[in-house]
Amino acid sequence: MIKKTKAVKESCGCAWDDETMRTHRKTIGFVKLSSMAFILFLITVWPAAMNFVHGVHWGIWLALTILFAIVPMKMMCCRKK
Question: Can you give the chain as a three-state secondary structure string?
């Protein structure tokens, strides 16, 4: 059986098929995890960073999280078919 791949998006001259999209999703996930681990490392070894993080009200962090999540959620949920 021949596997058919449909080109999803063409960017920089490259056709993005389903396999490429799955690979990029995994890569993006690992980048997010490594960024989170680096931030936790940074606030652990640098007391000034920990004081800053703990000094900011929790609502600010929640608002930033929601703001940064809006764009990817729009891209995933509101695609034109």
Answer: CCCCCCCCEEECCEEECHHHHHHHHHHHHHHHHHHHHHHHHHHHHCHHHHHHHHHCCHHHHHHHHHHHHHHHHHHHHCCCC
pLDDT tens digits, 2-49: 555 555 555 555 566 677 677 777 788 888 889 999 999 999 999 999
How many C-beta neighbours within 10 Å does residue 59 have?
A: 8
pLDDT score of 2: 52
User: For the chain, what are the domain ranges?
Assistant: 9-77
Residues in the chain: 81
